[in-house]
Design brief:
Layout (H helix, E strand, L loop, with lengths): L4 H4 L2 H15 L3 H18 L22 E4 L5 E9 L3 E9 L13 E5 L4 H4 L4 E6 L2 E8 L2 E8 L11 E2 L15 E5 L4 E7 L6 E7 L19 E6 L5 E7 L2 E7 L21 E8 L5 E7 L12 E8 L12 E7 L6 E4 L5 E6 L5 E6 L12 E4 L5 E5 L6 E10 L5 E10 L12 E7 L2 E2 L3 E4 L5 E11 L2 E11 L12 E2 L5
Antiparallel strand pairs: 1-2, 2-3, 3-4, 5-6, 6-7, 7-8, 9-10, 10-11, 12-13, 13-14, 15-16, 16-17, 17-18, 19-20, 20-21, 21-22, 23-24, 24-25, 25-26, 27-29, 28-29, 29-30, 30-31
Helix pairs in contact: 2-3
């Protein structure tokens, strides 16, 4: 299945839990690797949709349904890649484009990207996909087992490469380790898609550029310590620089790769907080000036902080040369977060960032940090919700704004589970724009749901995509929905959104 950026981070839940235990008990690195591997396999076998977009995070929801991936089309509309279960055929991946009003542009379900007939893959959770918009269409990159493929679709909905796409994985060697593929893809701003993936031979991470023509560059500029990365994140800026963050065991680092493929921050990148054991950095965004802002949790052994008490949340800003701009230990957000719940980081569009997290005391909180290291939404941030809920975060349409979407399961008297979706918009000053409780835009009967993906449109509203799962007669069906939310928080595509799976 596809794992959107917000759902991707659920891979990390088991890892993070185990990692905190390792840090606190000083277990050996070799033992940690075995634990992580088993934790991953458990997650993949039982929780097949266990990710931000670069700027959308984060899922903490275990789900059993396929997750659509979507990106703005640059004209107020949206591209969506989604999957259908077709009896007798298998799991088919389609792509559709909707205009600014939410009407499908391409006929029927849209172009078919590929047909998966391999038994078990549809439920294995080993496939991840990334959708990247271009000026004249979009490119879908996906992992199928140990192979990476891509397909380009033009503005008219026509696939431009060979049937089934082109294989990207020639530089990502296969192995018998059975480890999941970590995959990221971004537009570098120069008409190229940058693809990063873990090397299956455990030698680290490779980075390649895919041109709109279908030409692939060689392995470029990223060197990380050998091993299996458990975190892999990308960010990009308008100059064509790409930033990659990885972590493995209790170590992590950042590398900057220029538009011409040169490593800018040393042979192995920079390793911030090297003198601070227990720092776990999960995500990063570009500052627009050649540097990055990173979000980390810190668990110093001396603090003896338990998961129940929460862990401190810090951010750090690195300039174009990779030098830290804030205090050596990072900037504390004054927050204690749930250790097992990944936090979220997006750009604020003004050189800073917006952060959201699950508070250890309950609920979803958020904070905006300026590029100079000022906490703009008060010392404690803003409470978005007083209850713990799986959520995703996205940048708003105007500098400083942010969007949050979350899910709320409800068990009705007839034992039917209803998944209700809510969204909230935060202004540049941290005010809740929509109703204090947020805006509800669906209440579908569903056995499970993927964590919704949200991003801003060009009219002050938002697009939301998700998949709802139902089972009947031993057959599981995933249904993909999309909703358009107006600037005032009102849903525009019906009470439950547009059912993409019903398009014919």
């Amino acid at each position: 299945m596809f794992v959107a950026k917000e759902n991707y981070n659920t891979y990390k839940v088991a890892w993070l839990r185990r990692k905190s235990e390792v840090i606190m008990t000083n277990r050996s690195v070799s033992s940690l690797k075995r634990i992580l591997f088993l934790a991953v396999l458990f997650c993949l076998l039982l929780l097949p949709a266990c990710k931000p977009i670069a700027d959308i995070a984060t899922s903490v929801m275990f789900t059993t349904v396929g997750s659509p991936v979507s990106v703005p089309d640059g004209e107020g509309g949206v591209y969506v890649a989604y999957q259908k279960n077709v009896r007798g055929l298998g799991r088919i991946t389609y792509m559709q484009r909707l205009d600014a009003a939410g009407s499908p542009i391409w006929p029927g379900s849209g172009p078919r990207i590929y047909l998966e007939r391999i038994p078990g893959y549809a439920r294995s959770g080993l496939r991840v996909g990334e959708l990247v918009a271009l000026e004249d269409g979009a490119i879908l990159v996906w992992s199928l087992g140990e192979e990476i493929w891509a397909q380009r679709v033009d503005l008219m909905g026509k696939p431009l490469w060979d049937q089934g796409g082109i294989q990207v994985s020639t530089s990502f060697p296969a192995s018998d380790e059975g480890l999941p593929r970590l995959l990221r893809a971004v537009n570098d701003g120069r008409g190229r898609v940058v693809i990063a993936a873990n090397l299956s031979d455990l030698s680290g991470v490779a980075l390649r550029r895919l041109y709109a023509s279908g030409v692939l560059s060689g392995i470029e500029g990223v060197s990380v310590p050998p091993g299996f990365p458990e975190t892999l994140e990308l960010a990009q800026d308008k100059a064509g620089n790409v930033f990659i963050l990885w972590s493995q065991d209790i170590f992590w680092g950042i590398q900057k790769v220029s538009a011409d493929g040169q490593s800018e921050w040393g042979v192995d990148g920079i390793i911030p907080f090297a003198e601070m054991p227990g720092v776990l950095c999960e995500s990063l965004v570009s500052d627009g000036e050649g540097g990055v802002i990173v979000l980390c949790e810190t668990r110093p052994e001396a603090a003896e902080t338990s998961a129940e008490e929460g862990t401190p949340l810090i951010v750090q800003h690195f300039d174009a040369q990779g030098e830290p701009l804030w205090q050596e230990e990072g900037l504390s957000l004054g927050a204690l977060v749930e250790a097992a719940y990944p936090s979220a980081l997006v750009t604020d569009g003004a050189g800073g960032a917006v952060v959201a997290w699950q508070s250890a005391s309950g609920g979803i909180d958020s904070q905006r940090v300026s590029g100079e290291g000022q906490l703009l939404w008060g010392p404690a941030g803003v409470e978005v919700l007083s209850e713990k809920r799986p959520f995703s975060l996205a940048a708003g349409s105007e500098p400083g704004e942010a969007l949050i979407v979350w899910t709320e399961p409800e068990l009705r008297n007839n034992n039917v589970t209803v998944i209700r979706l809510w969204a909230q918009k935060l202004s540049a000053d941290g005010s809740l724009v929509w109703d204090a409780a947020g805006t509800a835009f669906t209440a579908l009967e569903s056995a499970s749901t993927s964590l919704p993906q949200i991003f801003a449109n060009d009219k002050g509203g938002a697009w939301v995509t998700w998949a709802a799962g139902r089972s009947s007669g031993g057959h599981h069906q995933d249904t993909t929905y999309i909703q358009l939310i107006a600037v005032d928080g009102q849903p525009l595509l019906g009470e439950d959104g547009l059912n993409l799976s019903d398009l014919r």
